[in-house]
């Protein structure tokens, strides 16, 4: 639980992807790999979904590529691309792998060639068990990206109100990611946020203030050689 009035060990080290499920938080574990393992413990079926949506940046059409956890709907990774076809999505898959600390059991995408190449480079292994790539999605059944489409709708609705974004690396997209993961309750999650599904509970009258206060706190460094 993260409280705006209680600091000490109960704090976020940064916004994303360094956010830590408080159920397993250990202030001595400060490496990215250890944080990734803690996050991975909160993801259930290890199935990921990736998709892209067009957005307007400085008047130009660009694409936001995003990847989420299927069960918790936690938005794990994102990147902005100038084009859809031919985009190198390896960075998106690599970030997802780094945050979760492991490869997923399944990755679901559309048939875009960028995803196939990224899967081959980041998730495919000769040794079994290997990640399964499903790229023939359907509108019904389990193998669909309906959850990603709903999240894409969130992004488009917000982007329209703002009349586009100013630059590719705008903090607005990070803010949308934080809002989706930790502020917005989801009906399909029985009123919980994706963060709460991962064991991250943020309390206080102003959740944004809670996040900012906790993210500004320094994590103690440990001299492991002494």
Could you characterize what this model shows?
- It contains seven helices and seven strands.
- The chain is α/β, with parallel strands linked by helices.
- The protein folds into two domains: 2-41 and 200-215, no CATH class; 47-168, Ribonuclease H-like superfamily/Ribonuclease H (Nucleotidyltransferase, domain 5, 2-Layer Sandwich), CATH 3.30.420.
- Strand 2 and strand 3 form a beta hairpin.
- The longest helix has 16 residues, at 146-161.
- It is globular.
- It starts with a strand and ends in an 11-residue tail after the last helix.
- The model is unreliable at 3-32 and 219-226 (pLDDT under 50).
Q: Layout of SSEs?
A:
Blueprint: E1 2-3, H1 32-40, E2 47-57, E3 60-69, E4 75-81, H2 90-100, E5 106-108, H3 113-122, E6 132-134, H4 146-161, H5 171-182, H6 194-197, E7 202-203, H7 207-215
Parallel strand pairs: 1-7, 2-5, 5-6
Antiparallel strand pairs: 2-3, 3-4
Helix pairs in contact: 2-3
Briefly summarize what is shown.
The chain has two domains: 2-41 and 200-215, no CATH class; 47-168, 2-Layer Sandwich (Nucleotidyltransferase, domain 5).
Let me know the largest β-sheet. Answer: 5 strands, mixed
Q: Rg, please?
A: 18 Å
Query: What would CATH call the class of the largest domain?
Result: Alpha Beta
Shape: globular
> How many individual β-strands?
7
Which class best fits the helix and strand makeup? alpha/beta
Order of helices and strands: EHEEEHEHEHHHEH
Distance between the termini: 32 Å
Q: How many domains would you count in the coordinates? A: 2
